[in-house]
Specification:
It is built from 3 helices and no strands. It has a domain at 28-86. The longest helix is centred in the first third of the chain and has 23 residues, at 5-27. Helix content is 72%, strand content 0%. The protein has helices spanning 5-27, 34-56, 68-83. It is mainly α.
């Protein structure tokens, strides 16, 4: 599957964001809420921020290229998966 330049940029941006979130969550691993809750909360917060940016930029949710909406969906899925088994 070949991605256009916009989609490749979004994939690189997502990789940087997830690496940063993982690093922050690892630092919080020894706290009382732990890594799982930290990564879940940070991912859901990132999803909300990305949805806000997508709405502000008036991006289309189902466009031919990846955009902030796609990134928001993936972060939301990560956040829900991290919090799924209580």
């Amino acid at each position: 599957m070949a991605f256009d330049s916009q989609s490749r940029y979004v994939l690189r941006r997502f990789a940087v964001k997830i690496a940063f979130l993982a690093a922050v969550a690892i630092v919080q691993a020894e706290t009382r809420w732990g890594f799982k809750a930290a990564i879940g909360t940070l991912a859901i917060l990132s999803a909300l921020i990305d949805a806000g940016l997508a709405a502000a930029r008036r991006e289309r949710p189902m466009s031919g290229s990846l955009n902030y909406w796609d990134e928001a969906i993936v972060f939301l899925a990560i956040g829900i998966a991290a919090r799924w088994p209580p």
